[in-house]
Write a structure and sequence with these properties.
225 residues, rod-shaped, mainly alpha, 0% strand, Methane Monooxygenase Hydroxylase, Chain G, domain 1
């Protein structure tokens, strides 16, 4: 169940119920007189305590989710039905006298033994059902955990593959940029070489023109002398 308090109340009720049933089935029929009255009062107080436990269980079941609340209320109804039967058994065994007990004690013991065995079987069956439910819930939780882990692995693999693709793209882009830079530097070196070559040619032409101009001036002004 979803409520730990409910489970604790259920365990307390079962312990109290088993104790009351043992007293009603085996101890009270064997007692007589004042001892029987005192044991009867003790059982009556235990029945009141069991009733209070059932009320607390009902209160604890009200805020529970729908499916769990239905299961809790069904348990409380079963417990209340068993408790009502226990109350009827108490009235039956506490109303008979010592002489009747002497003659009917063997029959009571056989009937009570059968009832106790049936009760033990019912309790074992209930605990088995609870254990099966707990196992099913644990299996469901384990399956959900495995499914979430598998989905996480798939997401992780997808992210790794995507990062790997992005890495390849970045490496390819870097290689292209490096190649463009190398090409740019090579073109820049070629351009610089051409500029220097053009400068040298231009300077050579200027020098040649100056030399020709100097020859013309010399020939025109100084050769006639």
């Amino acid at each position: 169940m979803s409520s730990e308090k409910f489970e604790n109340l259920e365990e307390d009720y079962r312990i109290l119920y088993d104790d009351l049933k043992r007293k009603i089935d085996t101890r009270i029929p064997r007692c007589s007189g004042e001892e029987k009255k005192q044991l009867t009062r003790e059982v009556e107080r235990g029945l009141e305590e069991a009733t209070e436990l059932l009320q607390d269980m009902e209160a604890e079941a009200r805020p529970a989710p729908g499916t769990y609340r239905t299961q809790m209320n069904q348990k409380v109804r079963n417990f209340r039905r068993d408790l009502d039967k226990l109350k009827r058994d108490l009235k039956r065994v506490s109303g008979s006298g010592g002489r009747d007990d002497l003659f009917t004690g063997g029959t009571y013991q056989r009937d009570n033994l059968d009832n106790e065995i049936s009760s033990m079987h019912a309790n074992q069956r209930t605990r088995l059902i609870q254990g099966t439910e707990s196992l099913n819930r644990a299996s469901g939780s384990l399956d959900r955990t495995h499914r979430i882990a598998a989905e996480t692995d798939e997401i992780g693999v997808g992210i790794i593959e995507e990062l790997g693709g992005q890495k390849d793209q970045l490496l390819s882009t870097r290689d292209k940029m490096n190649q463009k830079v190398r090409n740019f530097r090579r073109d820049l070196d070629k351009f610089s070489f051409r500029v220097m070559t053009n400068k040298m040619i231009l300077m050579s032409i200027i020098l040649a023109e100056l030399a020709i101009l100097g020859v013309v001036i010399w020939w025109k002004f100084f050769s006639k002398k």
